[in-house]
Amino acid sequence: MLEIRGITVGVWGTNCYAISDENGGCILIDPGEDPITIDKELIIPNRLRPVSMIATHGHLDHVGGAKYFTDKYLAPLYVHEDDVALANKATYWADVLGTPGITNPEKIKRLGAGPVIIKNFSFEIIHTPGHTIGGICIYLKEKGAVFTGDTLFFHTIGRSDRAGLDTGGQDLLVESIKTRLLGLPGGTIVFPGHEISTTIEHERQHNPFLI
Ligand SMILES: [Zn+2]
Ligand SMILES: [Zn+2]
């Protein structure tokens, strides 16, 4: 039986999630900018052991803590192949935006769309370009959960206005969400990269960008 836990860290308020199995092995989703807090408050107290990480996209606040977990737990970071270059510019963007404590990821594995099995965990990777060109949503069918990064939020969608940082576009983002995400079962819980959780059905009915 898998469990999902989350924590919000850093000046950007990024949600990092741990999906764990009964042995404590876990996949970290979006190891954001404050890995020490993630480790102290999410990993260690729950006796978890990160075996791998997946970034929903290559932005600094979603990959900036990955190196810490690669160094400490030997966990690699999976990133969609179209966002690897962006992930490798995390420190560059941290300098531009004045965000301290960010490091570039060191052990990146490339992901494409479709089913992926990592250790005991089976996911469906849904490519949802728009916020970034390599943005993904991670569907965990057995828990009825989808991790949407900065693609879909409660009552809003991700930004696409910051040149060089947001590498997609709003029309593309809306199309991605409508064609690839809203077809999931309505009760699917949406775990976004920032702010509170919602459901697919709720956003279908109430998200002003999608109705
Ligand atoms: Zn982002
Ligand atoms: Zn973000």
Describe the fold and architecture.
This protein has one domain (3-206): Metallo-beta-lactamase, Chain A. The chain has 7 helices and 14 strands. 47% of the residues are buried. It is α/β, with parallel strands linked by helices and 211 residues long. The protein binds zinc ion (ZN) (2 copies). One zinc ion binds at residues 57, 59, 131, 150.
Q: What class, by secondary structure content?
A: alpha/beta
- Helix content class: 10-25%
Tally of helical segments: 7
Strand order of the largest sheet: 1-2-3-4-5-6
Q: For the record, give the distance between the C-alpha atoms at the N and C termini, rounded to a whole number.
A: 35 Å
Domain tally? 1
Low-confidence stretches: none
Strand content of the residues, in percent? Answer: 25-35%
Tell me the major beta sheet.
Answer: 6 strands, mixed
Q: Would you tell me which CATH topology applies?
A: Metallo-beta-lactamase, Chain A
Throw out a few tags for this protein.
binds zinc ion, 211 residues, single chain, Metallo-beta-lactamase, Chain A, six-stranded mixed β-sheet, alpha/beta
Describe the SSE topology:
Layout: E1 3-9, E2 14-20, E3 25-29, H1 35-43, E4 49-54, H2 60-63, H3 66-73, E5 77-80, H4 84-87, H5 90-97, E6 108-111, E7 114-118, E8 121-127, E9 136-140, E10 145-149, E11 152-153, E12 156-157, H6 170-181, E13 189-192, E14 198-199, H7 200-206
Parallel strand pairs: 3-4, 4-5, 5-6, 10-13
Antiparallel strand pairs: 1-2, 2-3, 7-8, 8-9, 9-10, 11-12, 13-14
Bound molecules: zinc ion (ZN) (2 copies).
